Amino acid sequence: MGIARVETDKAPAAIGPYSQAVRAGDYLYCSGQIPLCPASGEMVDGGIAEQTRQVLDNLKQVLAAAGVDFSAVVKTTIYLVDLADFATVNEIYAGYCAAIAPARATVQVAALPKGALVEIDAIAFCCG
Predict the structure, then answer these.
(1) Residue 118 and residue 13: Cα distance in Å, rounded?
(2) pTM of the model
(3) How many whole angstroms separate alpha carbon 125 and alpha carbon 25?
(4) Which CATH number covers residue 94?
(5) 113-116 own/partner pairs: CB under 8 Å, 24+ apart
(6) Is the pLDDT of residue 128 over 70?
(7) Which domain holds residue 14?
(8) How many structural domains compose the chain?
């Protein structure tokens, strides 16, 4: 079983020493995405709703670069600066889920890179 980096210019470039995703065997481990515009590298305008959509769109592009989509996602973690945003994030997130929603954890954090309000990472199954 080998490992391979997965990268796409359709999602923001890594802002540190990490890969957008790493495929290891049948699994894809996607790094957390924050609401950066892939073209500019700048934070999207707006609040939690706009940021959540951008995060999920970025994640969608990373998954696509590996040849899968949200239906392959088996686990996500959502990091929120304010748990009061949970309902808004949950509503938008539900629109990206497949028939079998992934297992998930949601946690409140003190801060996220670049002042983001939300970050989401994912693990996807890439076989079958």
Answers:
(1) 17
(2) 0.96
(3) 9
(4) 3.30.1330.40
(5) 113/15, 113/34, 114/15, 114/34, 114/36, 114/43, 115/43, 116/34, 116/35, 116/43, 116/51, 116/55, 116/81
(6) no
(7) 3-125
(8) 1
